[in-house]
User: Fold Cytochrome C from Halalkalibacterium halodurans.
Amino acid sequence: MNTETALRDQKLTITDSVAKPDRKLALTNINVAYAAFLVGTLCGLLQVFIRNDAIQLPAWLDYYQILTAHGVLLALVFTTYFIFGFFYTGMSKTLGSFSDNVRMTSWIGFFVMTLGTIITVIMIVSGEASVLYTFYAPLQANGFFYIGLALFVVGTWISGFALIGHYVSWKKRHKGSLSPLFAFMTVTTLILWIIACLGVVATVLFQFIPLAFGWVDTINVGLSRTLFWYFGHPLVYFWLLPAYMAWYLIVPKLLGVNVFSDSLARLAFILFLLFSIPVGFHHQAVDPGIDHFWKFLQTVLTFMVIIPSLMTAFSMFAVFEISGREKGGKGLFGWFTKLPWRDVRFLSLFLAMLFFIPGGIGGIINASFQLNEVVHNTLWVVGHFHITVGAPVAMTFYGLTFWLVPYLTGRPFSRLAKKLALIQVITWSLGMFLMSTAQHVLGLLGAPRRTAFTEYGGHEAALTWFDGIFSNHVTMAVGGTILFLSAMLLIVIVVISLVGPKATEEEIVEFPLAESDPSSTPKLLEKWWVWIGIAAFLIIAAYAIPIAELLHHMESGSRGFRTW
Ligand code: HAS
Assistant:
């Protein structure tokens, strides 16, 4: 296919607007995401004050209860609903309106997810499940907490299969053509998610539920943690890939250029599918019961999963440079001054990328066997995930919100909203910088994570943790407070965008996706069975023997504990 035909084909598939019922579906998901965000960030604020000993909770409310709510509502609920809202919009826009079947299945998925969320939240709020978002065995919550989680995952599968069905029917109508880049990326992310969830579903159904309902007496702790991290690491790429979709597809459009390389973008996503799953042991580097060889193998695979992120960074720099030069930028860094700094919808994504530079470096440090010994289970890791999911991913989602909500409601992003958004992204960056730097420093000094306020018996080493400008809990609390205020501002912006005046005839509310030329992209990249086959091979190679060994030691399980 020549370039012209490919571009024409690509254009043909990009419909300009999303059908009203599809908008409703997407918008409902985004609204639930922001309801979870509101409560989740409030829990975050309480946490920093408790760790700082500035407030004491009433007897009926527990620190670990709030920490669980914070993790579940922000890391799982906010992200997942938002991602589905984004996917629905982009899939309907690029592949055409959903059929009644796809729409109905998506709504079923939404209701199952929401039922799961409600059950889980009730369990946390009623103090039956203060087990944090990682719900490590042998901590034991009320059985309904796990049922809620299982329903949540099943709901995402139903919605995911609906979107994959929409894609398959497009492929049938366009035999031999590569799908639009947005659809390709969505399907890759969904396949990754479906395979990843197998681990968490297995541990929830076969280990936690039987334990919690008293059908068995003990739980194999090593196995449950292994199955959790089989899921837990690809989970972070389930958050990251939609952000990368925005970077690959929206940033070039805002800069007035095309996607840098269609094949590079697709290859990066395929590499995530291959290498993001067989790496969970890097979260268990210090866990007993797993032979060092398997930890080492998964460490090597972890370094492989860094490559597609480096490809993405390269691609972004290329796009900046191409657009900068087109606008007359000169010299090595001339492009920098040509970027649209005043457009908050660009700025938000750019700041997100900037945060991912230290975020990614921190990840590489974590993944290094010996260095992990220093940072594991310290506040460093908390700092790491705040400048990965809490800034690059979250700030990209904010930038997307500034496009998506106006687009889905047909209400333009007002001047007031733009001004507030500018304050919001700057304050979020400032708060995150302060809080995450304090967390990194405190962690390096040895301050543990997953603990409420304690003076550690007044121990000399512990006292040094709180001495410096950054190494103290006050800085963390200041950062946390700025973040909370910024989060509330974001809620105001969302509300303004939901209820503001409708667009007039002249106003165009767009959702910008850049053109991507697939003419020289190898068709092999869209042969899913090849990639799913290789992913399965890598997973079996990395996990079959260690899991068999953990199963072999099944009899040495632990009874469940309720520590709160
Ligand atoms: Fe991580 C722990 C390793 C990425 C999230 N991680 C966590 C936890 C979370 C998390 C939530 O190996 C805690 C889990 C728990 O509760 O216990 N992480 C990595 C590695 C990467 C990585 C190797 N993590 C992420 C992402 C996350 C995330 C992404 C969320 C979205 N992580 C670990 C390890 C642990 C861990 C261990 C366990 C620690 C322990 O002991 O418990 C890599 O994927 C990172 C690769 C990224 C890069 C950066 C590329 C940069 C880009 C930006 C370019 C910028 C531009 C702008 C273009 C190599 C793409 C430039 C402009 C200019 C002007 C300069």
In short: The mean pLDDT is 92. Residues 134, 236, 239-240, 282-283, 302, 305-306, 309-310, 312-313, 316-317, 353-354, 356-357, 360, 363-364, 366-367, 372, 376, 381, 384-385, 388-389, 393 surround heme-as (CB under 6 Å). The two ends are 64 Å apart (CA to CA).
